Amino acid sequence: IPCVPWQSQTSGQYQRRVHGGAKLVDMEYVQVHPTGFIDPKNPEAEEQTLATEALRGHGALLINQQGKRFVNEIYHRDWVSEAEKAQKGNIYLVMNSGVAKETQVPFVKQYTALGLLEHYPSGKEFCETVKMPYTQFCDTLQVYNDLAARGYCPSGKKLFPNAPFDPEDKYVVGIVTPLVHYVMGGILINKKAEAQHVKGHSIPGFYAAGETAGGIHCKNRLAGNSLVDCVVFGRVAGAAAAEYAKSQSKL
């Protein structure tokens, strides 16, 4: 599957550091994000753009090429990703006018400028453009609206922001796919953020923090903790690097 842009850069860092003797840990633990926009101009690209969870949080639906919902859109990332992998054809992130209005700034505006979202005057025109059965699309929306009125979906979904979805409404749509989002593994560090050598000693003058470092999040990173990781261990690494630089100064 494709990855977010910084993942390919990070993998290059790993390769260079391994050659320098750095020890890697937990590299088998990879976090996949269920929604990355596929660029219509370059659909086979190894790097694609992350589609923020805010879109689904405001009510965007995930609909397959057959015009059906297939998952609780706001469930755990791994569950949604697995459900997507079982689908045939494209997967569409579908926003009605309510969702699009609430997420217009900055998300819809930004993704549209990048050429990742298409705007349709109606559900029928959307379906005709992507060759999706319009009757099934309408049935899917009707079932969803009924579930929203009830306040519960068998998939476990209990929140239905910006429902109901009217087939005659305006729609903003992008094609999505799972993306490699975060690697829990990386360079083994100690409490001073010093990179550890495969032979068990610290590598002088080499520090790691954030996603470059491994072993901080164990098997799965909690949402929001990537920035916390950067701030905490970035500060530790910066302070330790400054002390090391002072000790090496000849001034």
Order of helices and strands: HEEEHEHEHHEHHEEEEEH
β-strand percent reads 15-25%
State the separation between the terminal residues, measured CA to CA.
51 Å
Give a short account of the largest sheet. 6 strands, antiparallel
The counted number of beta strands is 11
Structural class: alpha+beta
Query: What form results from the Cα inertia axes?
Result: elongated
Q: Indicate the multimeric state.
A: single chain
Q: State the helix count.
A: 8
Residue runs with pLDDT of under 50 for 5 or more positions: none
Radius of gyration: 22 Å
Mean pLDDT level: 93
Helix content: 25-40%
Features:
251 residues; alpha+beta; 3-stranded mixed β-sheet; 8 helices
Layout: helices, strands, pairs:
Elements lengths: L4 H15 L4 E2 L4 E8 L11 E2 L2 H5 L3 E4 L12 H9 L5 E6 H6 L1 H10 L4 E3 L2 H8 L3 H17 L20 E13 L2 E3 L5 E3 L5 E6 L5 E2 L10 H24 L3
Parallel strand pairs: 8-11
Antiparallel strand pairs: 1-8, 2-3, 2-7, 4-5, 5-7, 6-7, 9-10
Q: How would you describe what is shown here?
A:
- A hairpin with a 5-residue loop joins strand 9 (about 195) and strand 10 (about 200-205).
- The chain has eight helices and eleven strands.
- The strands form three sheets. Strands 2, 3, 4, 5, 6 and 7 form a six-stranded antiparallel beta sheet that branches.
- The termini are far apart.
- The chain is elongated.
- The chain is about 35% helix and about 20% strand.
- By secondary structure, the chain is α+β, with helices and mostly antiparallel strands.
Overview in brief:
By secondary structure, this protein is α+β, with helices and mostly antiparallel strands.
